[in-house]
Structure formats: C-alpha cells, structure tokens
Amino acid sequence: MSESSATNPIPAQAGIGLRMPHHGQVLATRPQAAWFEVHPENFMANDSALAELERVRENYPLSLHAVGLSLGSAGGVDRAHLERLRQLRCRLEPGLVSDHLSWSVHGGQYLPDLLPLPYSEEALDIVCRNVERVQQVLGTAILVENPSTYLRFAASVIPEAQFLAALARRTGCGVLFDVNNVYVSACNQSSDAGAVLADWCGALDPASVAEIHLAGHAVVQAATGEELRIDDHGDRICEAVWALYEQAIQHFGARPTLIEWDTRLPAFEVLQEQAARAQSFLDLNARRAPAYAATPGHRRLATHARAH
Amino acid sequence: MPAPINTLNGPSLAVLQSRMAAALLAADREAQDLPEDLFAGAHPGSVGLRVHRNTVLGALSNALRSSFKAVELLVGEAFFDRMAVAYARARPPEAPQLDDYGADFPSSIDGFPGTEALPYLAELARFEWQLDELGRQHAGRLAGARSLLIAGGVRLHFAASLRLHHANYPVDRLREAILAEDVEALAILVQQAGSYRYALWRAEAGVKLAPLGAAVAGFLEAVLLGQEAEQAINAAAALGEAQEIAGLLAKEILPAGFVRIEAASPGKKTE
C-alpha cells in the first residue's frame, strides 16, 4: 500500500466529490461525509482555493482525482504537470491519487476532455510507460479509471476491461471502477450493460479495484438522430446504474465509493443523500470480498518514496 | 524513423492523436471529421467526435466565462461563446490548470468582429483578468513584499500582491454598472474615456482597489520597480506638482489598505 494511503486511508465508505461552491458550507458546518475527492488541477493555480482545501483536509480524508495527466499520450506525461501534482500530493497527503485511461495532451496543447484511446498493444505499452513514470515520480501507486466512451476505434483489438486489467498487472496501479461510465459506454455502443459489467467482473482482479465512482448522466439526441448518453455528472444516479453498482460491489466487495457531480451542482444535502444510498449498499456488502490489496508493485513504490 | 504502425495498419497512436486534436479544434467543417474507417462503433465516428468537440470547446468557454463575467454579461452568452471558441481554437491551453487560461483573451477580443460599438471591451477584459488573477492569490501566503524607508526611520511595507493597472476607461465603475445591469450608468461611463490608474491588491477579504492620481501612480510604479524613496518621489514629481507630492502621498497612499506603516522603534537609531 502506498505511504499516504497507509497514514491517511480512504475508508470503504461513500464519499463526495467536493466542488468549490460547497467549500464555504463544508468549512462552516463540517457536515457528515466519510471523505472528499477533488480535482487537483483546480488547486494548481488557485492559492486561495488551496488554502480552503487544506482546512477541509484537516477534518476529512482526501483523494486527488486528476484529469490532466494524459496517461494515454503518445508523447509521454508532461513533466511540469507531473511536478505540480507531486507537490500537491506532498502538501495534502491524499489517501488516493487517480486519473483516467484516456489522453488530453498532444503537441503541448491541452484539450480538456477524456479523449479515447484505441485499445491496441501499442497503446497499452504507452499507457504502461506513462503510468510507471507517474508512479515513480509520485512515489505511490495510482488508480486508473475507465472512461465513458462515445466512439470505438477499429484499431481496438483488446476489450477495454482486459486492457485495464493488463495495465494494473503490468504497472501495479489500482483500478478506479466507474460504474456510470460502464453504463454510458455500453449504451452508446448498443451493448447490454449487465453483460458488459459481467465482462469487467471477469477481467479485473478484485484486489486491484481500489475505488468506485458513481454519477448521473444526460440522455441527448444527436443531430444525426442517435440517442447518446453523455457523462456530464449533472444529475442523480439513475436506477440502472444503482443496480450495476450493487452487482459490482457484490463481486469486488465494499470499496470507497464516490458520488461525482460537476454540472448543475445541487445543494450539498443532495450529494449527502446520494452518498447515503451508496452507503446502504456498502453496509450490506461490507464483508463480501477482501479489501483492496496492495500489490508488490505498490509496496515497492512506497519503499521508494520513503527512501527519497 | 517512421511512426510505428499498429496491428490493423491504422495510424500510430501519435499520428492518431495529432489528427484527432486537429479535428477537435478545427473551425472548418470539412476538417472536423476523420475517415470513418478509423472507427468501428455503433454510431459513426463523427458523432463521437462531435461530443468530444463540444466538451473541449465548452470547457474552455466556461473557463473563460468564469474569469470574464462582466464581458459575458455585456455581450451576451452566445456572442461570448463565439469569442471564446475563436480564442480556444487559436490558442488552446498548454496546461490542465484552466484557472490560468485566458491571459491573452483580452487581446484576442480587441477588435473582434461585431464589437466595434464597444471600444472599451478589451479594457474591461484586461481589468477583469487582473481581478481574477488577484482573487486566486492567498493573502496570507504572499512573499516578496516591497518595503520603503522614508524620513524619520519610518518604513512603508507594501502588500506583496500590489499591482498597478492603467486603463483608458473607468473600468472599475464600468464593471460595476454592467454587473448591476445599470444601463443608465453604463451609458454615461462609456463617454468618459481618459486615463485611469488603479492600485489593486489582495487582502484577506478579497481583491481591493484604489483609484490613483498620476503622481501617486508614478510613485508606486517606481517603488514596485525597486527604487528608493527619493527616486520614487522624483518619479512622482515628474508627473505632478512637486510641492503637492508629499500631501498627495499622505492622502492617497497612507490610508490605503495596501501599505502598512512601521514607525521607528524608540531608542533605535533612525536613518
């Protein structure tokens, strides 16, 4: 297990994605929340917000969920951004650090989205190299999340679940399993979401799954007439995703579960209500499967961190 | 060395990412799509690309919107999006911390087609960017404050965040009028082109502002450039009536929140 997670663990309970409009309320009232997760990029050029986050951190476990490492970039991980994340991690001592199985940087330009990868051997090698580089610099294992997808490349020859499982095996990284993303991607590819979830359960080592994400999404009609589900984190979690979540934790066991809500942000109490529902599932499955287990790779990295 | 070819003889990942990045930022409709044989999903690849393009450009527009609130209110949401998207396509960010994104947005909207009737628009944007940058600073963490020894051993300590801003319109009042949607005040203020100088700084309670006269602005500019008291006073004198400088400084600087006065300690030798 990583050094930070050993000292500041994220409990296998339902946490809440903390967004800036709620900082004031959280600081003033110290509401019930098992843990918080934030996007570190929102604190890299905003000292004022970072000072608030440090005060939040005094009272709650914290996870850093990055969106800008661009783990799938063929050009490698941006050194300056990685250094910013390293400094933030040292300052905040988060229990977990994560990012996505996607890319967003090319040629020095940052495109603020989780852009899809072709799941090819070439891409797997590149993502493995980038994840290893990140883990080396951060001195800890990271978690990598399955993204929502809106297109599929002809060059994808490895099923997504197997691609992420191979990444975890080869690099020692953990998996951040986003149930809503599984549902959105399955629907957008006209696949049966239950069958897709079963594929994920079959592919992933339960011990590698360290966190679960839940979120709402939008259903839109594309200009060409297709119905698309958009992972906009702008609504309550739908019943189909709750059902998949129950299946997921029955298989993987109780895991830290985050309620993500980014657009059309509601009152904090709505997030608490969604977290309470996730917690009720976690309570029912608390002893169903072994907890996230640090792999030898995790321990090696943690030792590396202490040595330096 | 040629780019590696993957298993299906498609482009290498580097080439694919290069093409996709270009397609997502392209303004030209024909350049926005990639060959459909790259894709094998349930929907055409162009549908998925459109989702990603909307996300990328929407996120960048929103990042700019949060920094330039009065600009958006003035021109309207749809027109602001046109300016933002044009800027995003021309100058996409270089890093993921989007709080930093938009420093040269004011320059890019200077003369933007359709803004001819708003000659103060870029000035307003420059002012908002200053406010936004300062607002992201943390008053308690700022280092490198400038201090100045003046007569009698008295030392002036200036806020580390202190910066000067010069505009050709009363941008502070313009912004207030726009945010208050006070059309009558706005109509009067836009007629008041001139030379306006401000001190801006970050205090615990937020970003503070003080309008300055030319002489005091000259004094502060010299201070921020690292000049000593005598040089700074000379700089101020060059911009105002020499005999009034001391009074101006006392009136405009000493009561301002950006300076702290440290009196000479009793018994301590004054310089």
The number of domains of chain A: 1
Q: In which range does the helix fraction of chain B lie?
A: 40-55%
- Tell me about the biggest sheet of chain A? 8 strands, parallel, barrel
Question: What is the count of helical runs of chain A?
Answer: 11
Percent of residues of chain B in beta strands? 5-15%
Number of strands of chain A: 12
CATH architecture annotation of chain A: Alpha-Beta Barrel
Task: Supply the CATH superfamily name of chain A.
Answer: Divalent-metal-dependent TIM barrel enzymes
Tell me the structural class of chain A: alpha/beta
**Arithmetic mean pLDDT of chain B:** 89
Short key terms for the protein model shown above:
heterodimer, A: 308 residues, alpha/beta, TIM Barrel, eight-stranded parallel beta barrel, two-stranded antiparallel ribbon, 18% strand, disordered N terminus, disordered C terminus, B: 271 residues, alpha+beta, 2 domains, three-stranded antiparallel sheet, 11 helices
Please render the helix and strand layout as text.
The complex is a heterodimer of chains A (about 300) and B (about 270).
Chain A: H1 3-7, E1 14-17, H2 23-29, E2 36-38, H3 47-57, E3 62-65, H4 79-92, E4 96-100, E5 103-106, E6 109-115, H5 121-138, E7 143-145, H6 160-171, E8 174-178, H7 179-188, H8 193-203, E9 209-215, E10 218-221, E11 227-230, H9 239-252, E12 257-260, H10 268-284, H11 296-307
Parallel strand pairs in A: 1-2, 1-12, 2-3, 3-4, 4-7, 7-8, 8-9, 9-12
Antiparallel strand pairs in A: 5-6, 10-11
Chain B: H1 13-25, H2 45-67, H3 69-75, H4 77-90, H5 105-109, H6 121-135, E1 147-149, E2 155-158, E3 163-167, H7 171-179, H8 183-189, E4 196-203, E5 206-212, H9 214-224, H10 229-239, H11 245-252, E6 259-262
Antiparallel strand pairs in B: 1-2, 2-6, 3-4, 4-5
